[in-house]
């Protein structure tokens, strides 16, 4: 069976190209985020997987949840329901938001520190990452005392581990070899 991301890709591409042409990437992103959250909800997922419901009934459920969607967004949800692809909504949403971020040259970055960063430190880190990555960055900060100190920066496929815990682990490995 094909992987979820492979099956979701043509739907994502079609939705993204349509949203780009119409200039409403933000609206489509919001609609897909809401639909993906709904499809991921345990109760909604159990209704969507109910074989007693027709595809039209499942489509009506999703359209009702995403009532603020434009007509094209509602038609997209109906198309997914008709093709029995509503379960792909979380993957479609994720791929869509990646394409949107690439288009807008932006990047969401998760920063983990042992202690809370000052605003000036966050701004300095954001500026350094913007320069290094060539994109606008949005930082989300988390505190994890177990890293002891330093910082761990994560985004899609990039991890920069500058934590004290990682440095100690490298030192221990070097001493044991």
Verbal overview:
With 177 residues, the chain is an alpha+beta fold. It has 8 helices and 4 strands. The chain has a 4-stranded mixed beta sheet with strand order 2-1-3-4. The longest helix has 19 residues, at 4-22. The radius of gyration is 21 Å and the shape is elongated.
Q: Which regions are unreliable across 5 or more consecutive residues at pLDDT < 50? A: none
CATH topology of the largest domain: Peroxidase, domain 1
The number of E-state strands comes to: 4
In this structure, how is the largest beta sheet organized?
Answer: 4 strands, mixed
Radius of gyration: 21 Å
Through-space gap between termini? 44 Å
Written as H for each helix and E for each strand, in order along the chain, the element string is HHHHHHEHEEEH
Principal-axes geometry comes out as: elongated
Q: Largest sheet, order of strands side by side?
A: 2-1-3-4
* Helix fraction by DSSP (H/I, runs of at least 4): 55-70%
Coarse structural class:
alpha+beta
Question: For this entry, what is the oligomeric state of its chains?
Answer: single chain
Query: Count of DSSP helices?
Result: 8
Task: Describe the structure concisely.
With 177 residues, the protein is α+β, with helices and mostly antiparallel strands.
Entry keywords:
alpha+beta; Peroxidase, domain 1; 2 domains; 8 helices; 4 strands; 16% strand
Topology:
Elements: H1 4-22, H2 25-40, H3 42-48, H4 55-65, H5 71-82, H6 89-103, E1 106-113, H7 119-133, E2 136-143, E3 150-155, E4 158-163, H8 164-176
Parallel strand pairs: 1-2
Antiparallel strand pairs: 1-3, 3-4
Helix pairs in contact: 1-6, 2-6, 4-5
